Structure formats: C-alpha cells, structure tokens
Amino acid sequence: MIMKKIDFNTLIEILTVSIKLGLTSFGGPVAHLGYFHAEYVRKRKWMDEKSYADLVALCQFLPGPASSQVGIGIGVMRGGVIGGIMAFIGFTMPSVVALIIFALILQGLNIRDAGWIHGLKIVAVAVVAHAILGMAQKLAPDLQRKAIALAALTITLLWQTVFTQVGIIILAGVTGFLLYKEYVPDKSVSFSFPVSRRFGTFCLALFFGLLIALPILREITSVNWIAMFDSFYRAGALVFGGGHVVLPLLEREFVPTGWLHAEEFLVGYGAAQAVPGPLFTFAAYIGTVVNGWQGGLLATFAIFLPAFLLIVGTLPFWNGLRHNPKIQGALTGVNAAVVGILLSAFYTPIWTSSIMEPIDFAFAAILFSMLAYWKLPPWIVVVTGAVGGMLIFSTY
Fold first, then answer.
1. Each residue's pLDDT tens digit, 289-328
2. How many angstroms separate the Cα of 300 from the Cα of each of 102, 274, 276, 305?
3. Nearest residue to 126 via CA among 38, 45, 218
4. Which residues contact 396 (CB under 8 A, 6 or more apart)?
5. What residues have CB less than 8 Å from 282, skipping those under 6 apart?
6. Is the separation of the CB atoms in 319 and 123 below 8 Å?
7. Which pTM value belongs to this model?
8. Which CA distances in Å does 304 have to 22, 226, 237?
C-alpha cells in the first residue's frame, strides 16, 4: 500500500503552514530548522522532539538542501506524498516567485547592504540560539553526549570542508554505537510514514537513474532544456553542506559557458540572500535569466527533485532502523553531533555575519527574549527584526 487516505483539510493545513514558513524563514538552513522546530514540534506537535532530531540527522546524511528535506519529510509523514509536495511548494514558492521577479525586473538593484537584511540576519541569530538551546537540553544531557557535541563543534569549525560534516556524523554514529549499544529504544515513538518500501525503492532507483541518464541525454541530443535540467539536477544531487556550497557549482556550470554573466550571477546571489526560504531557490533566478520564467520553474524543479526523491526513498526504511537498539545507539551519538554542528553553524556564518557591534548583540538578545520568554509568533520577531535592522543600520 503506497499511501493511506489523506484528509483534504490536512493537505490544506500543510500548505498553509508551510507557506507561512516560506514567507518568514530567513537566515539559511540552520535557521530554517529552528523555525521548523518552533512551528511543527513546539506549537503544532506534529512530531515529538526525538523524531524531529532523527529526521534532521537523516537529512544531514543525504546530499541536497537539508532544511528542505526536513520540511518535505514532515509533510510526507503528515499527509503522504501529496503532503510532501504541499510542504515543498509552500516553503519554496515564495522565494521562487520573488527571485523570478528579481530576475525579470530588478536585476540591477543592489540590496545586499540594505538595513532590513541586516536586521533579518540578527533574527536568524535569535532563532538559531533558541532552537539549539532546546535541542541541546534533550539531545546532549550527559557528559558523553556533551563531549560528542563539543568534538563536532570543534572539528567543523577548524576543518570547514564539504566532507567534514558527513565524516563527523559517521564518527559520531560509531561512537554512539559503542557507548549506547545497550540503549533501550522508545518504541512508543514512531514515524507515521504512509509510503511503502516498494515506492521508496522506486524513488531511489529514479534518483540514481536520472543522475546517470541525464548527462548521456545531454551529449546525444544537445537540447538546451535537457542541458539545463542536467546541470541543476547534478547540483542538487551531489552537494553536501547546504545552499552556500551549491553556489560555486552553479557558477562553474553557467558563467564560463556564457549562459550567465558574472555580474548577473552576483546580483542574483544578493537577491537570494534577501528572500526567505532555501538558498537553492537561487536556481530560479538563474533559470529565469537563461530562459525566462519557464526556465526559472524548470530550474527549481530540477534542483529540488533529487532532495525529494532521496527523502521519500529513504524514510520508509528509516523507521525500522531507528527502532533497532544498536542503530538507536548510533543515532544517539549522531543527534549529539547535530547539536555541535548547529553550534558551529551558529558561530559561522550566522553570528560572524550578523553581530558586528554591541547594539547588534543587544538587539539579538531582545529578539531571543521575544521568542523564548514572551512566546511571540516567529513572524512578529521577523517583522521586528527587519524594522530594527533599518534603524540600527542607519546608525553605522
């Protein structure tokens, strides 16, 4: 059985919530995980803390945009494959539409140094700090797991390569296996994942099949849209480490080939920093410059398709593995490492690119208090950050 019957109202709810997140989730993938945690775990309780942490850990293993894969995974668990599509559309389309508009109308506008963007970076500091605090209390409560988190923090800060994060997660898994192999899993907590293993296997086969077939089709056909699809699909399929890592791949694919001028690429990058949602939607800007709004939509579909196929293909097998005591012990170590990785990303690039002056730190403390103590909705914090950023920037 591939899919259980999903209530139409559930799908609308998934779409509505994900659109709200897509409109307000500034700050990059780590901040997105903070927004997801606040909305899906704390507020709506669609899943528990442990399941969320396990899903984040799984998505750290997979190539592609981890935060988007987490959102898709939550959507699928809530509403089947269609729910995953709704979650993807809601979270991604606001920034896709914005970047297509930038490409068509505002390519020459320099927005990278705008005050409100500076304010949104400070919002990211508050959101990520809030998320890390909550996750650390639950995922690294003892000295062993604190040590794993500290090691992950130290190594990812000192050796910042695209493979470091994956290597740390593997080492943490081995360490957790050795330390917690007698761990008794909580079988009362289980993913509700309405997709069969057969369908998951099909998705994984399609992922690898396209990865092999598209370059061949590109060479034998010389069709422009196939070449575009291949470039974006490979970028989405082979990138570890988040949106910023995909930028040099896209630059090599499109600037030297003459499809995009270097100046256009930089302007688009500035625009991508200004919009909420995943940085992978930068593909929408490139596709629009190359081939109009249709190219923007094609590029978006191509770069996110690997992420969708991987998460849908992997999750049907994940529930059984995570209830195995030895696997659960490994996951215990991995979850602690995720805390360290998030702390590392919190320092750089989030803290280092946001907190420039004492007034920035004071403003971040206010925004953190709005989230953690006054329990205000994230969108109010985002608006406050944008307005405050303009006021602060004017004092520089």
1. 888 899 999 999 999 999 999 999 988 887 677 667 777 7
2. 15, 18, 15, 8
3. 38
4. 357
5. 99, 243, 246, 247, 250, 268, 269, 272
6. no
7. 0.70
8. 15, 16, 8
Q: Got the DSSP string for 236-276?
A: HHH--S-HHHHHHHHHHHHTTTTSS-HHHHHHHHHHHHHSS
What is the spatial distance between Cα 245 and Cα 268, in angstroms, rounded to a whole number? 16
* pLDDT, averaged in runs of 10, over the chain (396 residues): 64 94 82 88 87 83 83 91 94 93 70 69 81 82 93 89 72 90 57 79 94 89 89 81 63 79 71 80 91 93 94 84 75 83 79 87 95 83 86 73
- For 164-173, write each residue's pLDDT tens digit: 776 887 899 8
> What 3-state class would DSSP assign to 111?
coil
Amino acid symbol at 209? G
Helices (H), 159-223: 164-179, 197-221
In angstroms, the CA 13 to CA 87 distance is 10
Contact between 174 and 333 (Cβ < 8 Å): yes
Residue 43: other Cβ atoms inside 10 A:
13
Give residue 235's identity as a one-letter amino acid code.
Answer: A
Question: Could you give the CA distance from residue 72 to residue 85 in angstroms, rounded to a whole number?
Answer: 7
Residue with tokens 């927004």: 35
Report which DSSP code applies to 41: I
CB 306 within 8 A of CB 72: no
